[in-house]
Write a structure and sequence with these properties.
- By secondary structure, this protein is an alpha/beta fold.
- The chain has three domains: 3-173, HUPs (Rossmann fold, 3-Layer(aba) Sandwich), CATH 3.40.50; 206-266, SH3 type barrels; 269-342, Elongation Factor Tu (Ef-tu), domain 3 (Beta Barrel), CATH 2.40.30.
- It contains eight helices and 19 strands.
- The strands form four sheets. Strands 13-17-16-15-18-19-14 form a seven-stranded antiparallel beta sheet. Strands 1, 2, 3, 4, 5 and 8 form a six-stranded mixed beta sheet that branches. Strands 10-9-12-11 form a four-stranded mixed beta sheet, with no helix packed on it.
């Protein structure tokens, strides 16, 4: 019987992943990470739910405290990036360093599974991440920085399932935990604890007020309390009133100025600069330039583009919103994940 360890969050996706693997006659165990820091008001994990899941599935689930690793690798880097007025994507860094990096270090047999919606194909000594059956749940965007050496030992049971099927399976097997009447998908960062992100970050980032200026008329429209609260392309939450809508165009971080515009076309660009890329497909790591499709934020439509690897630039076939700090992820024409980088401008 094959051994496999599932990273158990206490949520519906990891629960059903473990259930599917058990039905496939794997010897399944679980690993649950907890984070507890009174000083930083960080509390991640749910031992009570995990203990219930352990009983329902009849599997052993080990609980490991990763407070130190999470704070240094994810939390502190997230706060530091926001302080610079840049909007990061903590989930991508967490997947790279914690969910996969630290996870596999705690699994002796090195065979792991998670509840990500992704298909994995091993072909010609190369790992390929394909779109899942449920295209609306495609989570490859968050996995482009995970090492191929780790992915080759991964199993993604939900790659061939629909989210609706996952919800129904969980409700049938554990209605006391995942009733279809009360289930609500989680969309927040794990460390927010249902607090609005700006309210949470305000505990760690000092307020630096500044002007909000209309890019077109140069008029001062109002004041903001911190550039870290805004992301390029953002429409909601600018709070300046008057005729709108307004979109965040750019930030002058040195002078604490937020530029906004009523014209969404002025927020979009055909030239994107990014950091040194990470490649999942080896063949592209030795290529100076190539054509592909790109995605500049999770769930965004893919856009045709040409990558210049040496210059770390992208020219797109149509204008798109690219927010510094977010990731730009590359896909082949037949929709296989290539890799990606972090947007600079």
């Amino acid at each position: 019987m094959k051994q496999i360890t599932v990273l158990m969050s206490g949520g519906i996706d990891s629960f059903v992943s473990a259930l599917i693997l058990k039905r496939k006659r794997y010897h399944v165990s679980g690993l649950h990470f907890v984070v507890n820091s009174k000083e930083l008001q960080l509390h991640i994990g749910n031992k009570k739910t995990i203990n219930e899941i352990s009983k329902i599935l009849q599997i052993d689930i080990e609980i490991i405290d990763i407070t130190k690793e999470f704070v240094s690798n994810v939390f502190e880097k997230t706060i530091d990036t926001y302080k610079k007025g840049i909007t990061p994507n903590p989930c991508i860094i967490c997947n790279q360093t914690i969910k996969f990096g630290h996870f596999i270090k705690n699994v002796p047999h090195k065979q792991i599974a998670t509840g990500h919606y992704v298909k994995l194909l091993k072909e010609n000594n190369e790992i390929k991440l394909l779109a899942p059956r449920d295209k609306l749940k495609d989570q490859r965007y968050f996995l482009y920085r995970v090492s191929p050496s780790i992915l080759q030992n991964c199993n993604f049971p939900l790659g061939i399932t629909k989210k609706s099927e996952v919800v129904n399976l969980a409700n049938t097997r554990a209605p006391q935990l995942f009733s279809t009447d009360t289930y609500k998908a989680s969309s927040d960062l794990c460390f927010l604890a249902h607090t609005h992100i700006n309210k949470f970050l305000a505990k760690f980032i000092k307020s630096r007020p500044g002007k909000i200026i209309d890019l077109d008329s140069k008029r001062i429209l109002g004041k903001h309390t911190g550039l870290w609260k805004f992301t390029e392309g953002q429409r909601k939450g600018i709070q300046i009133g008057g005729v709108g809508p307004f979109f965040v165009h750019s930030k002058n971080i040195a002078n604490d100025i937020l530029y906004v515009t009523q014209h969404i076309t002025k927020v979009k660009n055909c030239l994107i600069r990014f950091t040194k890329p990470k490649f999942l497909l080896k063949t592209y790591s030795h290529t100076k330039a190539f054509a592909c499709n790109i995605q500049t934020r999770y769930g965004a439509p893919k856009v045709q583009a040409r990558i210049n690897v040496n210059k770390c630039t992208i020219k797109t076939n149509q204008p798109t919103i690219a927010s510094p700090g977010q990731s730009v992820v590359f896909y082949t024409k037949d929709d296989i994940l290539i890799g990606g980088g972090i947007i600079v401008s």
